[in-house]
Amino acid sequence: MSPPSAMTIEPVSPVRTFQKPNVNSIPLRSANSKTLDEMAGKWETDFTFAPIRESQVSRAMTRRYFKDLDTYAESDIVIVGAGSCGLSAAYMLGKARPDLKIAIIEASVSPGGGAWLGGQLFSAMVMRKPADAFLTDLGVEFEDEGDFVVVKHAALFTSTLLSKVLQFPNIKLFNATCVEDLITRNAGDPADPTAVQIAGVVTNWTLVTMHHDDQSCMDPNTINAPIIISTTGHDGPFGAFCVKRLVSMGQLEKLNGMRGLDMNTAEDAIVKGTREIVPGLIVGGMELSEIDGSNRMGPTFGAMVLSGCKAAEAALEAFDQRKAECSA
Ligand SMILES: Cc1cc2nc3c(=O)[nH]c(=O)nc-3n(C[C@H](O)[C@H](O)[C@H](O)COP(=O)(O)OP(=O)(O)OC[C@H]3O[C@@H](n4cnc5c(N)ncnc54)[C@H](O)[C@@H]3O)c2cc1C
């Protein structure tokens, strides 16, 4: 859904700090480094770590993290959930738009969602064609079985995707961090004065989010962004978080609930249904099945990656439209 023309325009952040990556700025070997070959066989005689003071470790971490919190407090796009769909969206956005600030918020310590294994904890990952195009783009090898392809281990797919996403200089992953609410503004829709547009996310350390019932006064943090992509899945402690919140704030009438397993209909439905649900909030992946009442698909992952590609496209379209409205 495109934002109504009368909607309030949330300003798009004017700060543009990112440039195309300069690979020369990443030293792969420091001047005083040894090679592994130079160390080999000398572990007892000629080996010691370089000295360090503990506070140097603390400062090396905290300085960067707090700089990132400052940088991404105003983001261009926030992705909620780093499962196969969210990471695929991040990969496409990172490739297409090095000028945008993109924050990924992942509740778990370990990103990747349900894509570390195939079905029933087996290793191989199945993707139906045409999702093999994403694997080819990513550089992940597969066996071609005709109408579908098989990656030898789901972890090979997820670790490659994650590694590529993390290398984009304009993407920051905040893991162990939970989105626990959405920032809203009145959409200015004359037909519905209660309609909102989404203008950012409310975050907290996941461990804090999990203790609101037994501790008090643990206020959250915030990230403003004109576009949010929600890919929180259907399962787990925070599954389908954003669409559940839309229901509880009266922006969606109800969730239709994920239906039984039917691979043939489920995957098309997720990709086709990936869209802007309310202004500023695009939903993709299995979270969608909870709104649309579409079937589950089980252990076949093509819909997750192509839904991520479509979510990225929808996000860029909405972002550019919002920016044009701001400068009009
Ligand atoms: C236990 C299990 C059950 C499965 N059941 C099904 C099934 O019934 N049907 C089916 O089709 N496939 C199922 N799968 C297969 C497959 O895992 C999913 O289809 C696929 O992982 C969904 O991808 P996704 O990117 O949409 O969501 P996920 O892979 O679930 O990723 C969502 C990510 O969002 C994060 N997240 C959630 N809420 C928040 C929040 N508020 N803030 C920040 N991060 C958040 C989660 O930690 C997670 O990393 C299952 C997998 C597993 C492991």
From TrEMBL:
Q: Please indicate if the UniProt record lists Metal-binding as a keyword.
A: yes
Q: For this protein, what post-translational modification is recorded in UniProt?
A: During the catalytic reaction, a sulfide is transferred from Cys-217 to a reaction intermediate, generating a dehydroalanine residue.
Name the Enzyme Commission number(s) assigned to this protein. Answer: 2.4.2.60
Metal-binding: is it a keyword of this entry?
yes
Q: Which reaction does it catalyse?
A: [ADP-thiazole synthase]-L-cysteine + glycine + NAD(+) = [ADP-thiazole synthase]-dehydroalanine + ADP-5-ethyl-4-methylthiazole-2-carboxylate + nicotinamide + 3 H2O + 2 H(+)
Task: List the Gene Ontology MF annotations in alphabetical order.
Answer: cysteine-dependent adenosine diphosphate thiazole synthase activity; iron ion binding
List cellular component terms (GO).
cytosol; nucleus
Instruction: Give its localization.
Output: Cytoplasm; Nucleus
Outline the subunit composition.
Homooctamer.
Summarize the protein's role. Involved in biosynthesis of the thiamine precursor thiazole. Catalyzes the conversion of NAD and glycine to adenosine diphosphate 5-(2-hydroxyethyl)-4-methylthiazole-2-carboxylic acid (ADT), an adenylated thiazole intermediate. The reaction includes an iron-dependent sulfide transfer from a conserved cysteine residue of the protein to a thiazole intermediate. The enzyme can only undergo a single turnover, which suggests it is a suicide enzyme. May have additional roles in adaptation to various stress conditions and in DNA damage tolerance.
Entry protein name: Thiamine thiazole synthase
Question: What broad taxonomic lineage does this protein's source fall under?
Answer: Eukaryota, Fungi, Dikarya, Ascomycota, Pezizomycotina
Gene name as annotated: THI4
